[in-house]
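Input.
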Amino acid sequence: MRAAQEGARVVGIDLDEPSIASAVSIAARRFPSLEITYVNGPLEDVDGGFDLIMTNEVLEHVVDLRACLEDVRKRLRPGGTFYAGWGPLWYSPTGGTS
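Output.
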């Protein structure tokens, strides 16, 4: 939220509609004056480029990681940064929550 507080265009993306609804609710309660766009769909549905793309506990659930990272690369502007955070990996080919 700090980026939005400092005037950045912020886009929250998730494939899970309840997760988007939760993010909207939390942001509306905690940061009512911030303008944040939410997309319930894959990254390839998002138009435009970004200076920063962040993921947290996402990539361990992606089946085609190479294609996902290529989508990230295509949407990063020149000099852009990609940060990825991982949760604990599950002992299953498709992850413990899939």
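The first helix runs from residue 2 to 5.
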